[in-house]
Amino acid sequence: MKLIKQKQINPRRMWPNEALNFTPWLAENISELGEKIGMELEVVGQEVSVGPYSADILAKDINTDSYIVIENQLEKTNHDHLGKSITYASALNAKTIVWIATDFTEEHKKALDWLNDNTNEDLSFWGIQLELWQIAEDTASMRLNIVSTPSTNVKTIKSKTNNESESRSIQLEFWTKFREKLQSTKKIPSLQTPQAHYWYDVRIGRSDILLSNICNTQKSIVGVRLYIRNKVVDVYYPALEARKVEINKALGCEPDWDPNPSAKDKTITLLHQTDLSNPDKVEEALDWLVKQTIVFHGVFSKEVKNIKI
Predict the structure, then answer these.
(1) Which of 1, 149, 250, 270 has the most other CB atoms within 10 Å of its CB?
(2) Is residue 155 part of a domain?
(3) How far apart are CA 181 and CA 187, in angstroms?
(4) Report field, pTM of the whole predicted structure over 0.90
(5) H/E run at residue 213
């Protein structure tokens, strides 16, 4: 193994024009950004019209169906782009703003942090610094450095009653530890940012089908679920159910297939009773959930991939 000396270069050497070069490139490689912010992104459009202006990229988070406005700037941040980002988000009903720039002023970083701390918990603001590093004469690597991230723990707890806040706080702490443990195994490459929710989603490589793990603080139950959304359930659920015996054998357990028959979305669920007030039991539950998530991910990603549509 050889160590290679790298040199930071101006991103405009690769993308001379922001609108003509960088935005199309990012749209084609949107997974690079998705992995950085923990979302499965799908591009809806480029240069999306908003009155006399246009948003660089409008994307959608596949797991939540919420819109994301992405504003690119191959230079130092300025007030103009910040104002446009907020305008685009309001006009396009976006829940997330991602501002990419090569250099963030301290004032604009503080502005994003302030927005994250003082807006509704459904709104998120990301500041991403873009760097380009030359490895060889004709080879470079891109780095996306997070300079501002949604402070979910602050805005969620502020907006809830005491009981709700305690529950959300437990869930946020649980999912944060879960992500750390799962990430350390290096079994699943891309994991979303933990949030103070009942669920935590893990992608398996197909839109509208995912692992949606749960943490029920009222009943002290955690679980792993294959979640199949309504729009594809008629195709995928019968195909999986036809292989129920083989799948259960591969999983090494017998999960509950379709525990809520009246629901339009279908799930295949394995639950674990614990005690979320007991730190030792929490660690045990985390280890159990990490193990089962890896097993479910390995089995169902292959099964889903083999279904012909």
Answers:
(1) 270
(2) no
(3) 11
(4) no
(5) strand 209-216
Q: How many structural domains are present in the chain?
A: 2
Could you read off the pLDDT of 22-47 as tens digits, one per residue? Answer: 999 999 888 888 878 877 788 999 99
Query: Torsion-angle region of residue 8: left (phi > 0), alpha (psi -120 to 50) or beta?
Result: beta
Sign of torsion over alpha carbons 180, 193, 33, 212: positive
286: nearest Cα among 135, 132, 175? 175
85 lies in the same domain as 117: yes
Q: Among the three residues 117, 150, 183, which one is the final residue of a domain in this structure?
A: 150
Q: Tell me how far apart the alpha carbons of residues 307 and 238 are, in angstroms, rounded to a whole number.
A: 10
Let me know if 15 is exposed, middle or buried by CB neighbors in 10 A (0-12, 13-18, 19+). Answer: buried
Q: What percent of the chain has pLDDT over 70?
A: 94
Is position 1 within any domain?
A: no
122 is in which domain, residue-wise? 7-150
Question: Is residue 170 domain-shared with residue 302, that is, in the same domain?
Answer: yes
- Among residues 98, 19, 115, 87, which one has the least CA distance to residue 59? 98
